[in-house]
Amino acid sequence: MNNKKTIIDVRTRGEFMGGNVAGSINIPLNEIPQRINEIKEMPQPIIFCCASGSRSGQATMFMQSNGINCENGGSWYDVNYDYQTA
Question: Which helix H or strand E contains 72, and what residues bound it?
Answer without folding.
Answer: strand 70-75
